[in-house]
Design goal:
heterodimer; A: about 400 residues; alpha/beta; abc type-2 transporter like fold; 16 helices; about 10% strand; B: alpha/beta; Rossmann fold; Alpha-Beta Plaits; six-stranded mixed beta sheet; four-stranded antiparallel beta sheet; 9 helices; about 35% helix
C-alpha cells in the first residue's frame, strides 16, 4: 500500500513540469544567485573594491608616492579627480579638494575619502604624536571601508619608508597602539554620524520593497483566480476592456503598495526612531514611484503566469533574486563592482538607492531625479509588457 | 421578429473546428434550448455571441444589427456556466459590481439590485458573503448578475448544472419571469427533460453545426422515430417474435411502433394471442427527446 502511494506521488511529480522546476531548478537558481552575491566572485577579477576618494593637499614626492601605492592596491579603487559640483557635461574632471571629496561622500558617491594634508610627509614614522594627521572622511554605513583605507595607508607608509621602518625597533613612549603606527590618521564620520540606528534606514526600505513585490505579485495573481472562477470572462464581457481592467488593477496595487510602505516606515519611526517626519517629501516621492513600479511588475507576473503554481514559482525566483542582487538583503556597496552595475537592471536597486539618498544621505528632493526617472521608465515598460501578455485573455 | 440571427458561423481553434457553418434563429420572446454532446460547439457559440470569440466566418446579428467582435452589446445578457461571482463579496455587493460594470449607476442601480435580490429570493441574505451560499443560491445570483441591465436577449450556458431539483425549478421560474417581461432566452443544457418541458423550440448541435431544429415533434420526425412505441411484457419467454414485433433480449418483451394507438392496438394484441403468447402487461410511450437526440447525434462517446 505504501509502495502504491509512493509511486503515485512520484508519477505526479514526473508529469508536473512546474513542480519539477520548483523542486530541482529553483534551488539551483537561488544557490547560484546567492553564491554570486554573498560568496564573492570566484576570482574572476570583480572582487569588491573599496572606492576611495584621495585628496593630496601635501603635493610632495612622499604624498604622491602614498597615492601611487594606494592605487596599486587590489582592494582599493582610488579616485583623485572628479568633476566640479555644478559642472556641465562638457566639463572635465579636476583634482579633488577636501570640500569636494566630503560632499561626494555625503552624496553617497563613495563610502570614504582620504585627505593627505600639507605637512603629512613630515609626520610619517615619527611615533611622537606630533605632526599632521591624514584625515579619513567616512560614511558610517560602511565601516569596513574606513578601516581598510586606514590599514592600507599604514602599509603604504611602511613600504614607502622601508629602510626607516626596518631601523625602527625601540619601544614606543606611549601606550596607545595608534602611536605605534607609521602614519597618524584621524577618522571623521561625515555621513550617518548622528544616526541612532544607522542600518534601519537601509533595511526598512530593503524589506519594504521586497515584501511589496510579493504582495504585488499576489495581487497581480488575482487575474488567474478570476480566470479560473469565470469572473474575468464576465468582466470582459461587460463594458470594461482589458486596458481598463489592467489600469484599475495597477492603480489598486499601487495604492496598496503606498499603504504597505507607509505602515512599514511608520513602524520604523515609532519603534526604531527612523526619521520619517523630517524626510516626508522625499519619502512621498520615492514611495509613490516605487509602489507604481512594483504594481506594474506584479501585473507582469500575473499576466505571464498561466497557473497559481507557475506564478508562485516564478515570483519566488524573480523576487528573491532581485532582492538579493538589488540590495534588500545585503547592501549593494558591499558587492563586487560588476554586481553593483548588474543590479541596476533591477528596478528595486534604483528604489533602494532613492530611499538611501532620502534617509541616509539626506539629499534634497531634486537629487532623486535619476532614481525617479528610472522607476518611471521601468513602470512604463512593465505596463506595456503586461498589456501585451494580457492579450491572451482578449477575443480568441 | 428575430432577436438573434446566426448564419453560417465558423470558428477553428488550431486543428479543432468548433463551429462549421452553424445557422439558426432565436425569435423575440421565445425560450430556445441549444442541445449538443460535449464538444459540439455550444460554449464557443455563446462566447462568440458575447463578443469573446471572433468568428472565422459567418454572421451574427442582434435585432438585425450585425455584431462585430468587441462591439458593445447592451441588449445581451450572458450567464456563464461557471459561478462567476466574487466569493468574499456579499450578494448585494456582487450585484452592485456587475450592475456598475454594465453601466448602471445611482438610483437605477440600487433599484435593479433590490429587484434582483427579490427575484432570486435572496433578499434576506443580501449582506452575507457569497462563499457561504449553497450551490443553488450561487446559481440564482449568477443568473441575476447577468440580467441586471435588463437585456432583451439572455444567453445561459448550462444554468442548472450541479443544482438540486428545487433550485432548478426556481431557476426556470426566474427565466419564465424574464420571458414574461419580454426577453428572449437561449439556454444550453445537457438536461434533455428541461429542454423538453421548458422550451418551445430546440436546436440540436453536433460537430459545430445544427443537425435539427424545431419543436419536439419536429425533431422526432426529423430523427425518423415513430411517434409511439408499444411494449408487451409476456408471461413466458417467446421463441420468435410475431410479425410486426421485435423480440427483446431475454424473450419476454415484444416491441412495436404505433402511430394510432386506439386503431392499431387490438390487431396487434390479437396477433400475439394467435402466436400462443400470454401478455402480462403493456405500456405505450411517446418518442422522447432523449431518443431523438441520440438518433440525431449517435451513441458514440464524445471526448
Amino acid at each position: 500500500m505504501i509502495a502504491v502511494l509512493f509511486r503515485l506521488a512520484w508519477t505526479n511529480l514526473r508529469r508536473d513540469r512546474v513542480a519539477q522546476v520548483m523542486t530541482f531548478v529553483l534551488p539551483i537558481g537561488f544557490f547560484s544567485i546567492f553564491a554570486l552575491v554573498f560568496g564573492g566572485s570566484g576570482g574572476n577579477g570583480s572582487t569588491p573594491r573599496v572606492h576611495v576618494l584621495v585628496v593630496d593637499e601635501s603635493r610632495t614626492e612622499t604624498s604622491a608616492g602614498l597615492v601611487r601605492m594606494l592605487s596599486e592596491e587590489d582592494g582599493l579603487l582610488v579616485q583623485a579627480k572628479a568633476r566640479p559640483a555644478n559642472a556641465t557635461p562638457r566639463d572635465s574632471a579636476v583634482t579633488l579638494t577636501r570640500e569636494r571629496a566630503e560632499a561626494l561622500v555625503r552624496a553617497g558617491e563613495a563610502p570614504v575619502a582620504l585627505v593627505l594634508p600639507a605637512g603629512i610627509d613630515t609626520s610619517l614614522l615619527r611615533y611622537d604624536r606630533r605632526g599632521e594627521k591624514a584625515l579619513v572622511l567616512t560614511d558610517a554605513a560602511d565601516p569596513i571601508a574606513a578601516r581598510m583605507v586606514t590599514g592600507l595607508l599604514q602599509r603604504a607608509t611602511l613600504r614607502l619608508s622601508r629602510h626607516a621602518a626596518a631601523e625602527f625597533g625601540g619601544a614606543p613612549d606611549t601606550g596607545s597602539v595608534d602611536e605605534m603606527l607609521p602614519a597618524r590618521v584621524e577618522t571623521r564620520t561625515v555621513v550617518g554620524e548622528k544616526r541612532t540606528s544607522p542600518m534601519i534606514a537601509f533595511y526598512a526600505a530593503g524589506i519594504a520593497v521586497m515584501f511589496l513585490m510579493f504582495s504585488a505579485s499576489a495581487a497581480g495573481g488575482a487575474l488567474i483566480e478570476e480566470t479560473e472562477s469565470g469572473t474575468l470572462e464576465r468582466v470582459l464581457g461587460s463594458r470594461v476592456g482589458m486596458t481598463g481592467l489592467l489600469a484599475a488593477k495597477w492603480l489598486y496595487i499601487t495604492w496598496l503598495g503606498v499603504l504597505q510602505i507607509t505602515v512599514m516606515f511608520v513602524w520604523g519611526m515609532l519603534v526604531f526612531r527612523l526619521p520619517l517626519l523630517s524626510h516626508l517629501p522625499g519619502f512621498a516621492l520615492m514611495t509613490a514611484a516605487t509602489a507604481a513600479c512594483v504594481a506594474a511588475f506584479g501585473l507582469v507576473l500575473g499576466t505571464f503566469a498561466r497557473t497559481r503554481a507557475q506564478l508562485q514559482g516564478v515570483a519566488n525566483l524573480v523576487i528573491l533574486s532581485l532582492s538579493a542582487v538589488g540590495g534588500s538583503m545585503f547592501p549593494r556597496f558591499l558587492m563586487s563592482e560588476t554586481l553593483q552595475k548588474l543590479s541596476l537592471v533591477g528596478f528595486n536597486a534604483w528604489a533602494l538607492d532613492g530611499y538611501r539618498k532620502v534617509f541616509w544621505f539626506e539629499l534634497p528632493v531634486a537629487a532623486l531625479w535619476p532614481q525617479l526617472l528610472a522607476l518611471v521608465l521601468f513602470t512604463v515598460a512593465f505596463l506595456a509588457l503586461a498589456r501585451q501578455l494580457a492579450r491572451r485573455w482578449e477575443v480568441a | 421578429m428575430t432577436a438573434l440571427h446566426i448564419e453560417d458561423a465558423r470558428k477553428r481553434f488550431g486543428a479543432v473546428e468548433a463551429l462549421r457553418g452553424l445557422s439558426f434563429e432565436l425569435r423575440a420572446g421565445e425560450m430556445l434550448a441549444l442541445l449538443g454532446p460535449n464538444g459540439a460547439g455550444k460554449t464557443t457559440l455563446v462566447r462568440a455571441l458575447a463578443g469573446r470569440v471572433k468568428l472565422d466566418g459567418g454572421r451574427l446579428a442582434l435585432f438585425g444589427r450585425d455584431l462585430a467582435p468587441g462591439s458593445a452589446r447592451p441588449e445581451l445578457g450572458v450567464v456563464p456556466q461557471e459561478l462567476a461571482l466574487y466569493p468574499l463579496l456579499t450578494a448585494g455587493e456582487n450585484l452592485g459590481v456587475f450592475g456598475a460594470l454594465h453601466g448602471l449607476s445611482g438610483e437605477r442601480l440600487r433599484a435593479r439590485v433590490a429587484w434582483a435580490l427579490e427575484w432570486t429570493g435572496l433578499g434576506d441574505r443580501a449582506k452575507e458573503s457569497v462563499k457561504h451560499f449553497s450551490g443553488g443560491m450561487k446559481r440564482r445570483l449568477n443568473l441575476a448578475c447577468g440580467v441586471l441591465h435588463e437585456p432583451r436577449v439572455v444567453l445561459l450556458d448550462e444554468p442548472t448544472v450541479g443544482v438540486d431539483p428545487q433550485s432548478r425549478e426556481k431557476l426556470y421560474d426566474m427565466l419564465a419571469a424574464l420571458r414574461a417581461a419580454g426577453a428572449a432566452v437561449l439556454v444550453t443544457t445537457h438536461y434533455l427533460e428541461e429542454a423538453e418541458a421548458r422550451c418551445e423550440r430546440i436546436v440540436v448541435m453536433d460537430h459545430g453545426r445544427a443537425v435539427a431544429q424545431g419543436t419536439l415533434a419536429e425533431l422526432v420526425a426529423v430523427a425518423g422515430l415513430p411517434a409511439r412505441r408499444l411494449t408487451l411484457h409476456l408471461e413466458r419467454a417467446a421463441a420468435a417474435a410475431p410479425a410486426g414485433f421485435s423480440l427483446g433480449p431475454d424473450g419476454t418483451a415484444l416491441t412495436a411502433s404505433v402511430t394510432d394507438v386506439a386503431g392499431e392496438l387490438p390487431a396487434l394484441l390479437e396477433r400475439v394471442r394467435g402466436a400462443g403468447l400470454a401478455v402480462r402487461d403493456l405500456d405505450v410511450r411517446a418518442a422522447s427527446l432523449q431518443a431523438a437526440f441520440l438518433a440525431l447525434t449517435g451513441k458514440e462517446l464524445r471526448e
